[in-house]
Structures
1.
Amino acid sequence: MVDLDTIVSLCKRRGFIFQSSEIYGGLGSAWDYGPLGVEFKNNVKRLWWRDNVQLRDDMVGVDAAISMHPKVWEASGHVASFSDPFSGCPSCGRHYRADQLTDAFCPNCGAKMSAPKPASLMLEIFLGPVKETAMKTYLRPETAQGIFVNFDNVLQASRKKLSFGIAQIGKAFRNEITPGNFTFRTREFEQMEIEYFVMPGTDEEWHQRWIDERFAWYQKYGIRKDNIRLREHAQDELAHYAKRCVDIEYLFPMGWSELEGIANRTNYDLTQHSKISGKALEYFDEESKRKVVPYVIEPSAGADRSALAFLVDAYHEEEVRGEKRVVLKFHPELAPIKIAVLPLLKKNDRIVETAKRICADLRKRWFSFYDDTASIGRLYRRQDEIGTPYCVTVDVQTVGDEKTPADEKVTIRDRDTMQQIRVPVSALESVMADLMAERWAEVARQEPYRMSAAK
Ligand code: ATP
């Protein structure tokens, strides 16, 4: 298993993730996504949205504001009880989450820690120019409440029938006592949440369906079976509103940790918001002619944690002809760059021109990248290290004068096997479509695309 420092340093070197405000010494609890990181994380969010919203007819989305009325947080119970137990060290001044300490002594200096007390995770904000009269509210600690308060709006506008769900992706903020482990725990992060509304009585079955579905989702995009598991919450661990909760855990470099929580939140939130706002949040059931308050199943994932898990899982080190090769074996849909187009000789104008033209064509369909800043071997290694599934190399034969168009061929190289095939430029797009659908073996068997030795 790769250690976190190796991932942090690769992320910085290749432009996936930088420390926030680094030139000022850095802010430990926040990270910035760089040119490749933004593409990668957008892919995580896009695939989640596509699979959970666009490919289902029982789901719709919202994008609610980050700042919400302070009463939302009273109704949800966050103001009163969204806290973690906090313990400080009187000797070295460090503080820790008391539930993560193994004994009563400071892990840093060994002194006796203070008795645990609750520390609110809510970050206060003041809306308005004059602090004394400004409205005090909070940066949302979860995106879920933006869904609950819009339940009736969405129901009226979309005319959905139970069972249906509302999804949201967006930033959330928590004043974590001990942020750390890179992007695993930060004070600002992104969530991908679903509130799935069901008839009371069908909630347990729907809960199980969502657990199975979400567990399969991570594996569909490459997480290895051995590195992911489910963990049932014990009764005394359950949040006050939850009937049952199951975490999806991933084997991160620091050990098994939560990737996503899937809770049966009962009708707690809708009931609370009805009570405090005075607005009924109900569903009229045509069949029984009764109004019901739906139960809610909540699959709640972190975009940053998912991205970190996909990154760690994709990381491989191999030895190729006596040299270390680092390769990120991303699922093609997750890879930040899909195709790199590389000229074999950068001093040959016709090769360079052709490579640039091919890249511009491919880019219309897949995010592609042209690079001629090193020798071909170095260029391949660079693409391996950022997880680009395919490299297309343009050589003398691609631009040869006397050839017929069918002879104008490029080399396609596969990231994982380093195998190569020769493909006419005219067939490049259709072959690429097959390859992106992970059909390398099928394509390589076809006669004209003879396979050559690995490089
Ligand atoms: P933890 O026990 O790790 O603090 P939690 O149980 O409080 O997490 P939830 O409230 O269930 O987390 O949030 C849902 C998801 O949001 C988590 O599974 C995680 O992926 C993500 N998440 C929560 N807190 C953070 C954080 N501080 N930084 C990054 N992601 C987070």
Note: The pocket of adenosine-5'-triphosphate is lined by residues 142, 174, 176, 185-186, 189, 191, 258-261, 300-302, 304-305 (CB under 6 Å).
2.
Amino acid sequence: MNKKEKYRELLQQVEGLIADEHLEVSVLANVSAAIKETMGFFWVGFYLVHNGELVLGPFQGSPACYHIKKGRGVCGTAWAEGKTMVVKDVEEFPGHIACSHLSRSEIVVPLFDNKGVMRSELDIDHTEVGTFDEVDKEELEKICEAVARQLYQRD
Ligand code: SME
């Protein structure tokens, strides 16, 4: 299976997994597990906007930092700019927050509510430089849109 095909199956799996559940912690836990299992990335998880900063949410992988301020690191920059960040080589990203020295590339995708306010972020790290490209960006944005519709856009 090529990457696009894997993502197609993953999106279907995620849509099935989240269809009947609305509790944020549970949905995000299963979505991070599904992505990690299907795609084999090193670290997959969510940061949640809470009390004006990003806090660590459900994830799969090694322990990570709890708090990230707006504008700091890749996650904080994605929040400040309100858009997906694809980082080929984290060592070349100014201010990158290294939770694990094994992480070499990263993608962060924001999830918005129906007022356009960012509520959480999907953060994925991998051990090789240049893991994430336009296909990952497009497909992970589709997954995040489905999750955001279920969790944050219901009223
Ligand atoms: N590397 C991220 C921090 C989160 S961890 O990778 C899990 C950053 O620079 O925002």
Note: Helices lie at 3-18, 24-39, 73-81, 134-152.
